[in-house]
Write a structure and sequence with these properties.
Blueprint lengths: L2 H17 L7 E6 L4 H15 L5 E9 L5 H13 L4 E5 L14 H18 L4 E3 L4 H15 L8 E3 L6 E3 L7 H11 L14 H14 L3 H10 L10
Length: 239
């Protein structure tokens, strides 16, 4: 693995943590461990920063194991997280069994149930932040999906503070591109496959991803300009 990609990802995470003041000294952070490449890179990065004395926080990872999670995943995750010196908790949740009669299983439902359990566990065990592995491409895809589908200018925020709970959602990979995560994960040998369950319905996001790539022509600078435009609103030239 080239040290340059590891250095680049490390620097972008540091920038995100500082730009949006994501983790205060002494905070207790629960990392969502989905089993995919994004959460794995996030977990390793934060664990490494803590081990090096660059992050003052208590870290724990939580894996939500659903009805159709491959049996081999738990063993793989346990080995990876142990190597990183990061405590991993596995919680079994019957996602399909929670469906109301007549409702169809889909990715949104599964994601919502896993997020609910992450937040519930964090609240019950006194964590102050839940860290998710969403990256720059996720943010831009959500932006365009909301514009096209909801006629709304919105996306995933880097920090989301709940009004009802003493808890926040943070996204330390906010400035990292997916291609960088893939390259780093491949170099580290932790590239996990994407969701291959029978309920996968990411077609809309996949179509928007293709549109974003066509619009930016894969340019890192173009993608970062799109993100920065959300922080520099010129209301005088908007309807």
């Amino acid at each position: 693995m080239h040290k340059s990609i590891a250095h680049a990802v490390d620097g972008l995470v540091v920038k995100a943590l500082k730009t949006w003041d994501m983790i205060a000294p002494g905070e207790r952070v629960l990392i969502g461990a989905s089993g995919g490449k994004d959460s794995a890179v996030l977990a390793r990065d934060l664990a490494l920063k803590k081990a090096q004395g660059r992050l003052d926080a208590e870290l724990t990872a939580l894996h939500i194991r659903n009805d159709f999670t491959p049996a081999s995943m738990a063993e793989r995750l346990a080995a990876e997280y142990e190597a990183w010196g990061l405590p991993l908790v596995t919680l079994d949740v019957a996602v399909v069994a929670r469906l109301k009669p007549g409702r169809r299983m889909n990715c949104y439902w599964c994601s919502t149930q896993r997020r609910t359990e992450l937040i519930r566990y964090a609240m019950e065990h006194g964590y102050t932040a839940v860290a998710l592995g969403h990256h720059l491409d996720d943010v831009l895809e959500t932006l365009f999906m909301n514009m096209l589908r909801k006629a709304e200018l919105s996306t995933m925020p880097p920090v989301l503070r709940y009004r009802k709970y003493p808890l926040k959602i943070i996204r330390p990979l906010y400035l990292v591109e997916e291609r960088q995560i893939v390259e780093l994960a491949e170099g580290l040998g932790i590239l996990a496959s994407t969701c291959t369950c029978a309920y996968n319905d990411h077609s809309e996001r996949d179509r928007v991803r293709d549109r974003v790539e066509a619009l930016t022509k894969g340019s890192s600078q173009a993608k970062r300009n799109l993100l920065e435009s959300l922080r520099h609103i010129n209301a005088e030239y908007l309807p």
